[in-house]
Design goal:
2 copies of one chain form a homodimer.
Chain A lengths: L3 E5 L3 H13 L4 E5 L6 E2 L4 H6 L9 E3 L1 H6 L2 E4 L6 E3 L4 E3 L3 E3 L2 E4 L3 E3 L12 E2 L4 H12 L3 E5 L3 H12 L3 E5 L11 H13 L3 E3 L4 E5 L2 E4 L3 E3 L2 E4 L3 E3 L2 H5 L23 E3 L6 E2 L6 E2 L4 H15 L13 E5 L2 E6 L3 H6 L7 E9 L10 E9 L5 E8 L3 H13 L4 H5 L15 H15 L1
Parallel strand pairs in A: 1-2, 1-9, 2-5, 9-20, 11-18, 12-13, 12-18, 13-14
Antiparallel strand pairs in A: 3-4, 6-7, 7-8, 10-19, 15-16, 16-17, 21-22, 23-24, 24-27, 25-26, 26-27
Amino acid sequence: MPKKIIIIGGGTAGASAAFAARKADRKAEITVLEQESYPTYSRCGLPFAIKGIIPSLENLIVFPDKFFRQQKINHIKEVTVKKIIPDKKTVVADQDYNYDSLVITAGSSPVKLPIPGIDLPHVLTLRTINDAKKIVESAQSSKSAVVIGASFIGIEVAEALKSKGCEVTLVEAARTMWRVVDEDIGRLINQHLTEQGIKILEKSLVTGIEEKKVLLKDQTIEADIIIVSAGVKPNVTLAKEAGLDIGQTGGIKVNERLESNLKDIYAAGDCAEVVSALTGEPILIGLGTIAARQGVVAGANAIGGDKKAPPVLNSSILKTFGLEIGSVGFTEQYLREKQSGKLDPVSMLIKYPSLPHYYPGGVDIHIKLMADKKTHRLIGAQLLGKTSIAPRINTLALAVEKGMTIEELTQSDFCYSPPVADVWDPIAIAAQAVSRKLEKI
Amino acid sequence: MPKKIIIIGGGTAGASAAFAARKADRKAEITVLEQESYPTYSRCGLPFAIKGIIPSLENLIVFPDKFFRQQKINHIKEVTVKKIIPDKKTVVADQDYNYDSLVITAGSSPVKLPIPGIDLPHVLTLRTINDAKKIVESAQSSKSAVVIGASFIGIEVAEALKSKGCEVTLVEAARTMWRVVDEDIGRLINQHLTEQGIKILEKSLVTGIEEKKVLLKDQTIEADIIIVSAGVKPNVTLAKEAGLDIGQTGGIKVNERLESNLKDIYAAGDCAEVVSALTGEPILIGLGTIAARQGVVAGANAIGGDKKAPPVLNSSILKTFGLEIGSVGFTEQYLREKQSGKLDPVSMLIKYPSLPHYYPGGVDIHIKLMADKKTHRLIGAQLLGKTSIAPRINTLALAVEKGMTIEELTQSDFCYSPPVADVWDPIAIAAQAVSRKLEKI
């Protein structure tokens, strides 16, 4: 009899799991249960569709219905799962679905701030295509906007609204992009956003929202449109009710095969806890890349495979108003304050041109590298610049992943030609700076 | 008494050695003996100065005289070394120079083709600022050009002359860029160059040169200007005469500390043999990056340090008419024909867009990856595309350097955001393709 695979959620992790399961087993009955009315689309593309760079929200669809049909995957939309009954290997939704293996890729939802007025109709969040439609519609009649939360989505939405003609204020309870960069890089981001006309209020707690008003402790900001992007939380209610272990981070606990504590139930993507490649501690990271890679592992294992999901580094990148900001690993601040000394970062932030001084078009690359004081291993990197930051993040992710020391990095065999790279890449220059600092310790 | 360091050659390796020696010893007497009339400049920048992107050849100077003065390095120009007398620890040039340590960074010279007419005055090569001046002057009155040799410099000069209005024919005895790419990638390069109006003749041996004519076996090409870029050979005459061991590649034999067989004599840069990180065999690679890194090692060791020059990967990059072409390691052809089975390459060439399908501005990236059949380790990469090839070469160089398997590469924690990178980088897609091929073997 063909195996029955049920996948809850048709986002990046869910679709990857479905296709991986199909690749491993041509006969399995694979069903994806999706709440939304669209097939798999790129959530990360939503802010750019709002901005208008991408002509239509429908363009964001990555796996259209026919992909699922071609792969003989039963993709059911607009269906809400009510219950998982592990003892009966059944998922209850519009009907009962029996499974041999279940993959939970339920994703995450925007955090709802516990403040008065958060439910007012002009207070919006951005998670789905329908959310984006509401923002586009609302922006048409808006002259001013407040975006609450200066993380990836917050900044991308701020840029989109600014480009649509709104005066935008970005309000952040902590500091800009605090999860992925330190204060020194954060200041450079703020400077750039301010130059682009975004007003930034850091360390500003929103105390309430009224009709066209955002209330802070010491001031009130008028806003026709208010977007809350105060982080996400994993969707684990179904899993919890079914008896799955939830980790200390709030995500579903899984092993490296992405199995939960219950037999034949896997979890992947935003709703699952991952392990830090640097510290071994459980962390929650809602990134599309990790969802895609985990989906492949969970889907293959659900069909009887034995794939392992490697620990993660939290490699991330943002491009806003022409500036790229990237990060690998934890921030220095996090390692000092929260991580109780397992890793002891020694860091340097340098600025170095992307091209030789004599070749036109070079721009400054800011690079902060961190090495562990004891082992000299590269443990983190934060980069900022107007070109080629993303591929440099990838280079540094590999270096961290493979346990490279900062001294090895100074001698890496990087390429050079005046129109594209200098004799010493900024990465090597930054590594030299950290190496010199370590020599003096 | 302060140590006396003599450095023969003030190019990239020589200058790096001088500055590294100074850094290690504030009191040493450091003397650089340079044949040319300029301080250290970027040879790799010469074609772009000819093209006119860089306004003046003098812009190419990387370390002007005042740098050497500030560092109290005695930089003597227009001086020819006649002899090294190791027994007396003396270098004979315009005067006798005694040394405690000698660093030979004598560089390389263009290969002189053994054909009639090679000494005609309108037959030029490109190695020095003075060579570039001659080409610029000659190009002003030229309508047609033949460039002999389709390697890095040949292609860059062809582009420069084309942009100055010449009809350019590129004649190559073997095939385009055969040292660093395989025929499949070579064909893509030819297609691009042809689209840009460069005429390419592969497998065409030049049999002679006459006044304004290049003679091939079966045809004659008229040319107002003829540039020969048929590779370089290391400058080892002085070293040989002094009793230094010359390796089978024709370069000076050195150990990992860059010491020659004679006490207190080091060699670095184009004139020295290097070790392949992939095969352990001695190879000759005339790259500025290796010269810079080796200079640092030789200079530090000349002063009593103990640095090691790591083996090399031959990471290289070219940008021509907007297209970047990069390579790490040997070609598949080389590994099959010359390397007698130590590494057994399994390769795939794929094409994948640089950005998600829905985001405007993505371009095709062509990636060929090679894994060793037995170990599955990544052993080589060749890339071609209109954006971000150089930093991808650096990522792949690290992957090769750290012995990554192709399977590890498929799961690397790369970053993603629609304006700069897709969920799966083309590198990961290529790794998946090689991994699937290996599974079937």
